[in-house]
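User: Hi! I'm working on a homework problem where we have to compare a predicted structure to a textbook description. Could you give me the structure for the chain below?
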Amino acid sequence: MAFMDNCRTIQLSPKMSAILAWKLTMAPHAMAESDVQQLRDAGLEDDDILAVNLIISYFNFAHRIALGLGVTFHADEVDGYRY
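Assistant: Happy to help. Predicted structure tokens:
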């Protein structure tokens, strides 16, 4: 719960920091092999990187479908999602 309460200042492992800093949501058009290499350098294996990519991409996909259909969300459903 500490993460949700204060995700900007909580101490994270280098691996988790690399995952959270990954720009796939904010700037997917700017992704490069060097971004994937940063995840490898943080200790992720290729199958881990694929899993992270799939999870982030699916979340973004589902979110954009909902936005495109004009779905409204209750505050408790989206609490913690800030981007």
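For your comparison, note the following. The domain at 10-78 is CATH 1.20.1290.10 (AhpD-like). Residues 3 and 10 are 6 Å apart (CA to CA). Good luck with the assignment!
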